[in-house]
From TrEMBL:
It comes from the Bacteria. It catalyses: cholesterol + NADH + O2 + H(+) = 7-dehydrocholesterol + NAD(+) + 2 H2O; cholesterol + NADPH + O2 + H(+) = 7-dehydrocholesterol + NADP(+) + 2 H2O. This is cholesterol 7-desaturase. Its main location: membrane. Its EC number is 1.14.19.21. The lineage of its organism: Bacteria, Bacillati, Actinomycetota, Actinomycetes, Mycobacteriales. Keywords: 2Fe-2S, Iron, Iron-sulfur, Lipid degradation, Lipid metabolism, Membrane, Metal-binding, Oxidoreductase, Steroid metabolism, Transmembrane, Transmembrane helix. InterPro entries: Cholesterol_7-desaturase (IPR050584), KshA-like_C (IPR045605), Rieske_2Fe-2S (IPR017941), Rieske_2Fe-2S_sf (IPR036922). Its cofactor is Fe cation. Homotrimer. The two-component system 3-ketosteroid-9-alpha-monooxygenase is composed of an oxygenase component KshA and a reductase component KshB.
Amino acid sequence: MGRAAGMAKPPLSMKPTGWFQVAWSDEIGVGCVHPMKYFGEELVAWRAESGQLTVMNAYCEHLGAHLGFGGTVVGEVLQCPFHGWQWSQQGRNVCIPYENRPNRGRRIKTYPVIERNESIYIWHDIEGREPFFDAPDVFASFEDGSGPDDYYPQQRLFEHGLELHPQYVLENGVDFAHFKYVHNTPIVPVFTRHDFDDVVSYVDFTITFEGDDGQSIEDVNSGVQAINGGLGIAVTKSWGMVDNRTISAVTPVDEFTSDVRFMVYIGRTPGEDSEKAEAKARTFGQEIIRQFTQDVSIWAHQRYSDPPALAGSEQQGFTAIRKWATQFYPDGKGGSAAALAAAAQS
Ligand code: FES
Ligand SMILES: [Fe+2]
């Protein structure tokens, strides 16, 4: 099936480096074999008897059966449906059932994987480098002693195969002007921190969803802190409003589309365990998800503008985040910012 003419293929690589979500942990129970496609590759995720999760390329090195369709977990290994060859969690062949010894030479490519905040993240790097930063944790990364017990159950949004790039979602974090127009905040938020010095970046801003446009931002006592762990995963923590945490995770599927996952946690009030409170938390979580879907509908139809027509007050934030983003494009396809950075270095 051909793509429609005029499709908004971003001038940014759809094979960036970093941690990316490929599933939720509870989607792949013990013994489950789960076919999936990310970064243009057919992949398979499977969970061994011990609970260990493996993500690997889907094709058997023997004659190429897709392990995600009929492959079975046998103890700690994955057995191919075609001729019964067994593959380890390191992608090694450990058994050819009709031979005395396995094939020690062939190996299926496996991906570094971590399970965190109920998600499965894989490390993707087309140069095959080991992970050089850690995926952010919606609790631990804020170093405030918080944990999932302080929050109601995770609420989720999953949108499959949207025509957008992970960087669109991240740029939202420095885009102060959109809050008033997309999310109907009464006044435009103000950024109090833009820290793009490291692989993991930090953005803080003062924002309110309450009151009218007569208030001044100096009087607002609420805000959001965001941590961007590369292009794939961003976590946020709120202060001064209903206690909430969010995780947004965007993972390229192919050269055109990405999967978007968004997760919300609403804080529990100590001593308040009623069903009514939980129902209220659910409603509030759904409202945050609704606000996120307002962004999604923009991103899914957006055409990446490079160079963009920035207003003076937007220059600093957008320039910083686009320059920071270039380090995650090993093939150098980071748009004009990458070209500028390369020129500056040579
Ligand atoms: S193709 Fe997998 S065992 Fe033959
Ligand atoms: Fe937004």
